[in-house]
Design goal:
Shape: extended
Number of helices: 5
Strand content: under 5%
Largest sheet: none
CATH class: Mainly Alpha
Order of helices and strands: HHHHH
Distance between the termini: 55 Å
Oligomer: single chain
Number of strands: 0
CATH topology: AhpD-like
Structural class: mainly alpha
CATH architecture: Up-down Bundle
CATH superfamily: AhpD-like
Number of domains: 1
Helix content: over 70%
């Protein structure tokens, strides 16, 4: 469990800086993608950060939670807006698991049927 989210950001900044040096072309492309994602106007920056925070929770990325929590606060997101975003992340984290579980059961059923001797 993370105790100090700000310290995580500081630590990750150093690690990401090292990654930028080790893989400059890929990290440059990633930075360009981030700029492009933030560049459109249909959603405001606060909403984009709330979306990113919800995704960070759903995919269980602690450093992503740290970065996007900080960005959401800087963009003026209220605690209520964050809580509502997190309810959607909880819902979507569980809903897809149901869908994948259903697919997994179907896959097992198909594999079992294939493994049975044909009469």
């Amino acid at each position: 469990m993370v105790e100090d989210w700000g310290a995580m950001i500081v630590a990750m900044n150093g690690a990401v800086r090292e990654l930028r040096q080790a893989a400059p072309e890929v990290m440059k492309s990633f930075s360009e993608m981030a700029r492009a994602a933030h560049g459109h106007d249909a959603l405001d920056q606060k909403t984009k950060e709330l979306v990113a925070l919800g995704i960070a929770v759903a995919i269980r990325c602690a450093p992503c939670i740290a970065y996007h929590s900080e960005a959401a606060v800087k963009q003026g997101a209220s605690r209520e807006a964050v809580a509502e975003t997190l309810t959607m992340a909880i819902y979507m984290g569980a809903g897809p698991s149901v869908m994948y579980a259903a697919q997994a059961l179907k896959a097992v059923d198909q594999m079992t049927a294939k493994a049975l001797p044909q009469a």
